[in-house]
Specification:
Layout (H helix, E strand, L loop, with lengths): L8 H31 L8 H4 L4 H7 L3 E13 L8 H7 L8 E16 L3 E4 L1 H4 L4 E5 L5 E3 L1 E6 L4 E5 L23 E6 L7 E12 L10 E4 L11 E4 L4 E8 L10 E5 H12 L7 E2 L2 E5 L2 H7 L7 E6 L4 H5 L6 E5 L2 E2 L3 H9 L6 E8 L2 E8 L1 E2 L9 E2 L9 E5 L2 H6 L9 E6 L4 H4 L7 E5 L2 E2 L6 H5 L5 E8 L2 E8 L1
């Protein structure tokens, strides 16, 4: 029989003392935790009602306005070469074995969207409907509508659709001021991940003003840890007051699934695109008329600033908005309408989300002192007219399509500062221009000794020689030349 262990009186007394000390320590720790949590504005639920707190009311108010988007597009598929493509077989059996090298097929894709007006206006991502020949919208109550594409903007990765609800009032989500959100705020992501059906995930705002993401030309995203997966694109990121904070657009992932790093286009940019769609026109972006670079910590020291952040003005378009506002090369733009500017992408976003015709206050650092200026918000002018021409003839540039550069075309092609000259916009496959390795985006500077400033100058420059040409052009900011001789 195993002996029993009995505590002696002295041991019992020591055990009771130790137990009392442990209980006291736990009570003190609990009291400290409650005090600290109360000071921080958080506390443990103290009633059954508080334990039952839920996101359900927010979901009920917003989920009906999040839709599934099914799109179909026709794609050309290259057929693999086969033995029957050999001319020997075709000679005896004709084309019945070889057939066509290409075939057409329909490709389907799935995404999400958000209803933003009761009469059927829906916003989604450009990449959800890109190239679609047929778009169908399915509501959360399983009603289905064919959709018409109203506005599609690749640079912001946003698109606006319209459905006809046949007199019915559709559920909507109001847009929130996305500048009013803070890191740590609770949010919900609603969409249709992997096509499993409408799904709600929760999380917080992980970061704001993410500009180095590389998703679109206007990179300025809200980062969240709410689970976002394929199919969520175009869905809603909503706040606890039931308002639309952003449109879910991308995730950072090495596996294709969510790892807690998702990005949403802010509602302020979404509002700009929706307003353009409601006005029935193409998206016209506001333009500053400057080029610049982000103020780094090394540059900040030279400008007499104690930290990085802001945009150094490099170049001004004469007579443009920034020039008329009084900006000068070397100025540092620190803030737009009271919001600090961290980098060049932040400046572009702040300007792009303002309405045309507005006057926006900006804070500028010049000569080691602050200045307050007013920047007029305008569209980029198309001067001179682009005058698109396809070049033909017996010369090296045959097959190239060219146009006059202007601020408007430079904005369209995302070429900041390329406000003048002649640019190659397209090159025909197999053309002479392609064979000498010219590319779309090359800016023509001259042929032989003749300068090219406008499209009208090209014919005369090409006619200056029949046997030898030296073509000068700019590519990626570097001047290059090609010599061609017969």
């Amino acid at each position: 029989m195993k002996p029993r262990h009995i505590l002696s009186p002295s041991c019992c007394k020591a055990f009771v003392v130790a137990l009392a000390l442990l209980v006291g320590s736990l009570q003190a720790s609990l009291s400290w935790a409650q005090t600290d949590s109360t000071a921080a504005g958080a506390r443990v639920p103290s009633s059954e009602g508080e334990i039952k707190l839920s996101f359900a009311p927010v979901v009920k108010a917003t989920a009906p306005a999040v839709v599934n988007i099914f799109s179909k597009r026709q794609v050309t598929q290259q057929r693999r070469p086969s033995l029957f493509d050999d001319p020997f077989f075709k000679r005896f059996f004709g084309e019945q074995f070889g057939g066509q090298r290409k075939r057409e097929r329909m490709e389907s894709s799935l995404g999400s969207g958000v209803i933003v007006s009761e009469d059927g206006l829906i916003v989604t991502n450009h990449h959800v409907i890109n190239g679609a020949t047929e778009i169908k919208v399915v509501l959360s109550d399983r009603r289905e509508f064919p959709a018409e594409l109203i506005l599609d903007d690749e640079r912001t990765d946003l698109a606006v659709l319209r459905v006809d609800p046949e007199g019915a009032r559709l559920p909507t989500i109001p847009l929130r001021d996305s500048d009013d959100v803070e890191v740590g705020d609770l949010i919900l992501a609603i969409g249709n991940p992997f096509g499993v059906g409408q799904t709600v995930t929760s999380g917080i705002v992980s970061a704001l003003a993410r500009t180095q993401v590389g998703i679109g030309d206007f990179s300025f995203f809200i980062q969240t840890d709410a689970a976002i997966n394929p199919g969520n694109s175009g869905g809603a990121l909503v706040t606890m007051d039931g308002q639309l904070l952003g449109i879910n657009t991308a995730i950072y992932s090495r596996s294709g699934g969510s790892v807690g790093i998702g990005f949403a286009i802010p509602a302020n940019m979404v509002r700009t695109v929706i307003d353009s769609a409601k006005n029935g026109g193409a998206l016209v972006r506001a333009w500053t008329g400057i080029t610049g670079q982000t103020l780094t910590s090394d540059l900040a020291m030279g400008f007499g600033l104690d930290r990085a952040g802001g945009v150094v003005v490099s170049q001004l378009y004469g007579g443009g908005p920034a020039d008329r506002a009084g900006l000068k090369p070397g100025d540092v733009i620190l803030a737009v309408d009271g919001v600090e500017i961290q980098d060049y992408e932040s400046l572009r976003f702040r300007v792009a989300t303002r309405g045309l015709g507005e006057q926006v206050p900006i804070e500028v650092w010049r000569g080691r002192q602050n200045l307050a200026l007013n920047l007029p918000i305008e569209a980029a002018p198309e001067s001179p007219p682009r005058e698109v021409v396809r070049l033909r003839g017996q010369h090296p540039l045959a097959g190239a399509q060219v146009a006059n550069l202007s601020p408007a075309l430079a904005e369209e092609l995302d070429l900041p500062g390329a406000w003048a000259g002649v640019i190659i916009t397209k090159i025909a496959r197999g053309s002479t221009a392609q064979r000498i390795r010219m590319r779309p985006g090359d800016v023509l500077l001259g042929v032989n000794d003749r300068s090219i400033a406008e499209v009208a100058d090209i014919d005369g420059a090409l006619a200056s020689s029949q046997s030898r040409w030296r073509i000068r052009f700019s590519r990626g900011g570097k001047v290059r030349s090609i010599d061609i001789g017969r």
